[in-house]
Amino acid sequence: MPPPLVIAVDGPAASGKGTIARALARHYGLPCLDTGKLYRATGLALHRAGLAPEDEAAAASAAAELDPARLDDPALMSADIARYASIVSAHPAVRSALLARQRAFAAQPGGAVLDGRDIGTVICPDAPAKLFVTARAPVRAARRHAELAGSGDDRSLADVLADIEARDARDSSRSAAPLRRAEDAALLDTSDLSIAAAVGQAIRLVEDALARRGPHSA
Question: Reading across the β-sheet that carries 129-134, which strands appear in turn?
Answer without folding.
Answer: 32-34, 111-116, 5-10, 129-134, 186-189
